[in-house]
Design brief:
single chain; five-stranded mixed β-sheet; alpha/beta; 4 domains; Rossmann fold; Ubiquitin-like (UB roll); binds iron/sulfur cluster
């Protein structure tokens, strides 16, 4: 993707759809995946001689106009852009412009997103991809690589021990890329599938796996389509690469439920552990399950000879548009929150996905140990709650979701989430039983079979700790945020 003339990159969740609206077929125009900053799309980046001009939220007419200049070096940067970035002309990573959602952090694991053509083997090869590192080197990197996200069987733990046990196991083994559930994983599959596959292939070669399966939500059509195309053209993989979809349910990302879905079982229930998937996994074979984030981290670390030391996370909630970004582990939550365009005054953040911890403190670093210490989640998802949000209503919804969406296999989660939703509803009738709620959460946390039940009480536990006055006010018939008035009157 080089040449003397300007290159126009059209970036969006569906860039080909954007281009087809414009009837544009000019040389020098390429479609790339989303950068992760959805609010800027369609984003057109015009690059010429080490300088890239960014044009945000382009109409079809504007896209057509910019593409028409693709063969004109003089007009490539002739004003009208929203930001410009100077960079190495040969860079293979998106240069970071001063734009909301895109200007924060760095682009290493996300470097390909919005810059390289997702299914172009030439682009990936030019960026140093498709390498064949030795198993010894992969195992060495694995020592300090920790799994990312709750869909990873090594979440927040070094992956090396699990790799060793699969490597030493007798018989055939599998590698499952668990791309279900997290927006950041869906982005990587759609915008940087070869990074993810490079990681999966390196692991498969290292442990001697003879099957690689990419598992994603059926709803993430773009991710499925793109990673399927990339899998078909991956050069000489050590094992066949299949792409399998599962239902668009939250629980379907849990590693053992992911295995159930990949095996084609319609009723998803978590499997008892031990034995873990590394012993008895897909079709009873030793299996590694890693998220796209973990595998892309592995791939870029193997290529660069040093770990990027970053976390990829998605900021959602009361923001103009979701943003997926990459920040150093030393960055704080406030940097993540500030990267998104909030739609109101900040009140709190729910950190760690669906069952994250609720906090008003954002000076916590993104390092998993610091997040755990603060009773926050490490799933790579931050939901911003604006000041007109009612915290009691928010955690009530999370509890109801948990009671409706759990798999039903174990009592502490199945009955516990139902009781929790009831106890939170009782507050509206004047009965706030903090001790009863905390005891219930303790039982769910310590006795549930899988991470779903272990974490389902975290929003409530942390919200009581940070916002107890709101719970007491509701028991007194008052909603400080003013959003539960009808519910309180009906009680
Ligand atoms: S914790 Fe919940 S989701 Fe997990 S096995 Fe038990 S009932 Fe199912």
């Amino acid at each position: 993707m080089t040449g003397d003339g300007p290159i126009v990159r059209v970036s969006a969740s569906d860039p080909d759809g954007v281009l087809s609206e414009t009837n544009t077929t000019r040389d020098g125009v390429v479609t790339v995946g989303s950068t992760g900053a959805q609010g800027l799309e369609p984003l057109v980046a015009v690059t010429h001689e080490g300088r890239t001009a960014f044009h945000t939220r382009c109409s079809p007419e504007r896209v057509a106009e910019l593409c028409a200049h693709a063969d004109s070096a003089e007009t490539a940067h002739s004003g009208g852009y929203d930001a410009v970035a100077d960079h190495d002309p040969q860079t293979d990573q998106l240069p970071v412009p001063e734009l909301p959602g895109l200007g924060a952090g760095e682009r290493t694991v996300l470097g390909a997103c919005g810059w390289r053509r997702p299914t172009s083997t030439a682009d990936h090869e030019a960026a140093g991809g498709f390498g064949t590192p030795s198993p010894a080197r992969v195992l060495e990197v694995g020592e300090s690589l920790h799994g990312r996200g709750w869909g990873d069987v090594c979440q927040d733990e070094s992956v090396a021990g699990t790799w060793e046990s699969v490597r030493e196991a007798d018989g055939a083994s599998s590698v499952v890329v668990n791309g279900h559930g997290a927006a950041s994983d869906a982005l990587l599959l759609a915008s940087a599938p070869f990074e993810v596959l490079d990681g999966a292939v390196a692991v498969a070669r290292t442990v001697g796996a003879d099957r690689i399966v990419v598992y994603a939500s059926a709803d993430d059509e773009r991710s499925v389509e793109t990673v399927s195309a990339a899998a078909e053209t991956y050069p000489e993989p050590p094992a066949p690469i299949d792409v399998v979809t599962g239902p668009a349910e939250y629980k379907a990302a849990e590693p053992t439920m992911a295995l159930e879905a990949v095996e084609g079982n319609h009723r998803l229930e978590a499997r008892l552990r031990p034995p873990g998937p590394e012993e008895v996994g897909l079709h009873g074979r030793p299996t590694l399950l890693h998220t796209p984030r973990t595998l892309a981290h592995l791939a870029v670390t193997l290529r660069r000879d040093e770990a990027p030391g970053t976390r990829v996370l998605t900021v959602t909630g009361d923001v103009a548009a979701p943003v997926t970004l990459e920040l150093p582990e030393t960055a704080t939550l406030s940097e993540a929150v500030d990267a998104a365009d909030a739609t109101g005054e900040f009140k709190a953040a729910c950190v760690g996905g669906q069952f994250g911890g609720v906090t008003r403190e954002t000076d916590v670093t993104l390092d998993p140990a610091a997040l755990e210490e603060a009773d926050l989640g490490t799933e790579g998802a931050v939901r911003v709650l604006a000041d007109d949000r009612c915290i009691v209503e928010f955690v009530g919804r999370q509890a109801t979701f948990a009671s409706e969406e759990n798999c039903g296999r174990c009592v502490p989660c199945r009955e516990g989430t139902t009781q929790l939703a009831e106890l939170l509803r009782d507050i509206y009738g004047g009965a706030y039983d903090r001790d009863g709620i905390e005891e219930l959460l303790r039982v769910m946390d310590t006795s549930s079979i899988c991470a779903f039940g272990v974490r389902a009480g975290r929003p409530t536990r942390t919200a009581i700790s940070a916002f107890e006055a709101e719970f007491e006010a509701h028991a007194d018939g008052r909603c400080p945020a003013g959003s539960c008035t009808e519910a309180l009157e009906a009680s």
